Amino acid sequence: MSDLILIIEDEPKIAKLARDYLERYGYRVLTAADGPTGLAAARRESPDLVLLDLLLPGIDGREVCRRLRADSAVPIIMLTALAEESDQIVGLELGADDYITKPFSPGVLVARVRAALRRVQGDVHDTATLRSGDLVIDPAAHSATLAGRPVHLTPNEFKLLVALARRPGQTLTREQLLDELHGAALGGVDRSVDSHVKNLRRKLERDPDRPLIETVYGVGYRLVEPE
Ligand code: CA
Description:
Elements (H helix, E strand, L loop, with lengths): L3 E5 L3 H13 L3 E5 L2 H11 L3 E5 L7 H11 L4 E5 L4 H9 L4 E4 L4 H16 L8 E3 L2 E4 L4 E4 L2 E3 L3 H12 L5 E2 H9 L9 H13 L8 E4 L3 E4 L4
Parallel strand pairs: 1-2, 1-3, 3-4, 4-5
Antiparallel strand pairs: 6-7, 7-8, 8-9, 10-12, 11-12
The structure holds calcium ion (CA).
């Protein structure tokens, strides 16, 4: 399944332009025209990347960025009409990964989106297939199946699952898992591990009495070895 991009932009022309180009390059695209709708879509759909306008009705882009970052490590690219360096720096300080100044060329947009996704997805080095019960993970293909059915995971969920599956039965601390996600942790992101694990459980666990990922209270998480 191709990556899902959420565009939060109130100018219909720009949203349409971005959507058309990203779709042409094979991405799936969702759009939202104001801050509250965008935040709700981000929580509901777990996009692989968010393109976020700075000046938005409802809740502005800075606040949307801050709230997304409070519980998610999704790559965020800020769209700014303002060529002011201070706005770009504010975006990065709030945890955005990159910014694009409007008007932008479609080629630049696609290149930046690809680069941001590659930074998140690209460092799954070891490509050996991992198995745990009927869960099969193929790091090279960036895919996972459960009992033969594909499981759709975001890049960060996939990274965490690979990290846990490489050390079955071993507890990984939140810090170790954050390291897998970011290399270096930014302030405010440490709850992101919990939210990714919650999503992984929702996607992978059929029977609540037989958890796949166990919480080790006060420490972190571990993948349960199947009997
Ligand atoms: Ca705007």
